[in-house]
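Design a sequence for this backbone.
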C-alpha cells in the first residue's frame, strides 16, 4: 500500500472517530437542552395555573383546557406533591397516540385542594431534534468529504517532488555513466534525501567503472600468460623425445590451463551480467534458437548415442540480449549432455511461456537448492567449471526469468519460464 493512501486512510479513520464522538456528544447535549426547555415550559404553565386558581372562584374554575392539555380536579386535603413523567396520549390533530411530558402537582386555594395535570407535547421537540441531528449529520459528512479531498490534494502536492525524484531514479541506469541531478524541492527532508542519493549514485558510478576496468584488465592480463603457457605446452606435447610420463604430465598441465582459461572467461561473463552490461534487448524465439543449437550438437549427441525428443510446438518469445540468449541455451543444452548416460535420452518441450529441458542421469548427490551456486558440482568431473548453471541462473535473474529444477520419473528437468 502506498504511504500516501495509508496516511489518508488513517486520517479518515481519525476524522470519522472524532466526528462520531462529537455527534454523540452533540446529540445528548441537544437532548438535555430540549429536556431542560420542556421542564421550563411546564413550570411556567404551572405558575400560570396556580395564579388562575387563586384569582377565580371555585365554582367558576374550568376543569380542562380546550386543547385537552390541562386537567384540573378538586381533591380532598392531602400532602403537596409534584412529579413529572412521560406518557402517551391521543392527539386529535395527529389522530394518533403521541408522546407527552406530563406534570402532576397539587395546590390549595382558600382551603380548597386541587390536583392539576399538564401535558406538554414532545412531538415538536422530537421533530426539531431530528431535523437538527440530520442537519448536523449532513454538515459533518460535507466537512468530512471536504477534509478528505483537501488532504488528498495537499498530500499530492507535498509528495510530488518525491515521485519526481523516484521517476528520475527509475530512468537512471548505472551502465550509462551519466550524472544525475535532483531539483530543489523546498522541503528539507526531500532535499536531504536527494543530496544523499546524488552522493550514493556518484560513488556507485565510480565503483562500477573501477570494478568494470578491474575485471576487464584482470581478465586480459590473465588470458595473455595463459595463452602463452598454452602455446608453449602445445609445442612441448609435439616433442617426440618426451617419455610417456613426461607427456602425461604435460598433457595434464595443458588441460589445467584450458580449464583455467574457461574459468576466467566464465567469471568475467558473470561479472558483466551482474553489472548489467548487456543492455540492448530484442524479442527472440527460443524454440527456433534451440533448433539451431541442436544442429551444432548433433555429433556430440551421436557420440553418446543419446535419444533426443523435441516438442517445441508452442512458440516462446523472450526479450533478451542475443548473446545472453545464446549462452543461456548453450549452457542448458550442454548440461543435459554432460550429465547424461550413454544411450540416455533428452526431452525438450515448450508450453505457454515456458521451456523444459529434461535428461536422464545419476540422481543428485547435493542439495538441489545449491544447484545454481557457483562452483557447486554434482560430481568431480574436471570437464565442468561449476559455473554453467550459475551463469544460466544469473542471466535469468538479470532478465526477470525463472529457472527451476525438478527430479521426477528418473528425469532431471530444468524449467525456463517467463
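Sequence:
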Amino acid at each position: 500500500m502506498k504511504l500516501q493512501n495509508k496516511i489518508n486512510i488513517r486520517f479518515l479513520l481519525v476524522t470519522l472517530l472524532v466526528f462520531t464522538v462529537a455527534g454523540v456528544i452533540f446529540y445528548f447535549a441537544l437532548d438535555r437542552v430540549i429536556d431542560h426547555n420542556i421542564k421550563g415550559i411546564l413550570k411556567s404553565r404551572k405558575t400560570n395555573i396556580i395564579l388562575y386558581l387563586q384569582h377565580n372562584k371555585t365554582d367558576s374554575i374550568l376543569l380542562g383546557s380546550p386543547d385537552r392539555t390541562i386537567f384540573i380536579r378538586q381533591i380532598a386535603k392531602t400532602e403537596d406533591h409534584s412529579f413529572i413523567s412521560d406518557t402517551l396520549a391521543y392527539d386529535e390533530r395527529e389522530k394518533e397516540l403521541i408522546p407527552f411530558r406530563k406534570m402532576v402537582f397539587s395546590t390549595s386555594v382558600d382551603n380548597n385542594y386541587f390536583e392539576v395535570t399538564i401535558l406538554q407535547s414532545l412531538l415538536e421537540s422530537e421533530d426539531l431534534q431530528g431535523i437538527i441531528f440530520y442537519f448536523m449529520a449532513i454538515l459533518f459528512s460535507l466537512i468530512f468529504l471536504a477534509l478528505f479531498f483537501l488532504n488528498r490534494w495537499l498530500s499530492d502536492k507535498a509528495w510530488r517532488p518525491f515521485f519526481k525524484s523516484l521517476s528520475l531514479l527509475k530512468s537512471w541506469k548505472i551502465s550509462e555513466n551519466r550524472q544525475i541531478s535532483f531539483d530543489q524541492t523546498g522541503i528539507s527532508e526531500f532535499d536531504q534525501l536527494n543530496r544523499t542519493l546524488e552522493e550514493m549514485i556518484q560513488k556507485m558510478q565510480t565503483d562500477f567503472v573501477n570494478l568494470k576496468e578491474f575485471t576487464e584488465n584482470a581478465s586480459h592480463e590473465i588470458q595473455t600468460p595463459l595463452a602463452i603457457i598454452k602455446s608453449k605446452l602445445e609445442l612441448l606435447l609435439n616433442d617426440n623425445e618426451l617419455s610417456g610420463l613426461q607427456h602425461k604430465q604435460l598433457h595434464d598441465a595443458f588441460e589445467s590451463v584450458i580449464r583455467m582459461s574457461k574459468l576466467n572467461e566464465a567469471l568475467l561473463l558473470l561479472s558483466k551480467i551482474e553489472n548489467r552490461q548487456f543492455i540492448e534487448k530484442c524479442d527472440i524465439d527460443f524454440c527456433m534458437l534451440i533448433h539451431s543449437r541442436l544442429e551444432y550438437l548433433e555429433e556430440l549427441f551421436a557420440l553418446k548415442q543419446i535419444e533426443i525428443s523435441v516438442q517445441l510446438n508452442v512458440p516462446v518469445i523472450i526479450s533478451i540480449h542475443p548473446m545472453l540468449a545464446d549462452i543461456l541455451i548453450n549452457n542448458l543444452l550442454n548440461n543435459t549432455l554432460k550429465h547424461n548416460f550413454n544411450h540416455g535420452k533428452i526431452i525438450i518441450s515448450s508450453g505457454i511461456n515456458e521451456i523444459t529441458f529434461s535428461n536422464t542421469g545419476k540422481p543428485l548427490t547435493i542439495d538441489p537448492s545449491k544447484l545454481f551456486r557457483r562452483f557447486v558440482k554434482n560430481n568431480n568431473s574436471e570437464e565442468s567449471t561449476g559455473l554453467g548453471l550459475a551463469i544460466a541462473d544469473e542471466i535469468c535473474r538479470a532478465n526477470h526469468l525463472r529457472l527451476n529444477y525438478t527430479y521426477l520419473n528418473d528425469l532431471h528437468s530444468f524449467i525456463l519460464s517467463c
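The chain has a mean pLDDT of 81.
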